[in-house]
Amino acid sequence: MKRLLLLSTLISFLSAQSLFALTGREIIDKSENLAKPKSAKSKVSMKITKGGTVMDKEFLLFQKTIGGDDKVLITFTKPTQIKVLTHTHKNGEDDQWLRLSSGKVKRLVGGDKGGSFVQSHLTYEDLESRDIDNYDYKNLGDASVSGQACYMVEAIKKSGTKTYDKNILYVRKNDYVIVKVDFFQKGKLFKYMENKDIKTIDGIVTPMKIIVTMADQSGKTEMNVEKVIYNTDIEDSKFSKEALR
């Protein structure tokens, strides 16, 4: 009887664990609910490695929430004067413009967004916002990333531009911070992004180093946040299309 009782207790415990396990969407909701700034200014250095070639770039990033939409301006200070402006929208696709070194401004649409961002291993689509309602989520179970206990969540986009078949997000269990993202194309791992040296600055969780590595090890892009200031005054006009010229 004691063995039977023990077995019954174990089965009940395992059933309860399964019953109360977080769904993929619940995990992402908790990550999404982490504190976010109303505005931000940051200076970022970028190192792009392709084969034996290394390119060093620097840019300033300005972000502000205006009328419920996030607006982001990336201005390169080295080696060119390229600018990228992104306006997010709760409903519909984001608007995105590229200012070339020549001063010409180009609106990015459709397939343009799958192109390489300044020769890096990021695409313009990678720079866009993510509406969590536009994805289906599934909790794939537990994983470990650099010794950190994580949830592994599959995210598949419902509609719109699809550069990737799916993403797998690794969400740290102790604070719901995303520490890694796998990107799949044609059913195979295409590249992965790692958030490292994660700090809390003015209550905002901030990865100070972001590394995007190609799955075939053909190259990687490393970005280091040299300086960041949150909730600072930035004029709305800075994020207008006209300001790109």
Describe this protein with a few key phrases:
245 residues; outer membrane lipoprotein receptor (LolB), chain A; single chain; 13-stranded antiparallel beta sheet; mainly beta
Overall mean pLDDT: 89
Query: Considering the protein shown, what is the CATH homologous superfamily?
Result: Lipoprotein localisation LolA/LolB/LppX
Q: Give the neighbour order of strands across the main sheet.
A: 6-5-4-3-2-1-13-12-11-10-9-8-7
Q: Structural class given helices, strands, pairing?
A: mainly beta
The helix/strand order is HHEEEEEEEEEEEEE
The shape, in one word, is globular
Q: Tell me the CATH architecture.
A: Clam
What's the end-to-end separation, in Å?
Answer: 81 Å
What integer value in Å does the Rg equal? Answer: 21 Å
CATH class, named Mainly Beta
- CATH topology, what is it called? outer membrane lipoprotein receptor (LolB), chain A
Q: Compute the number of strand runs.
A: 13
Q: Work out the count of structural domains.
A: 1
Largest sheet: 13 strands, antiparallel
- Give the percentage of residues in beta strands: over 45%
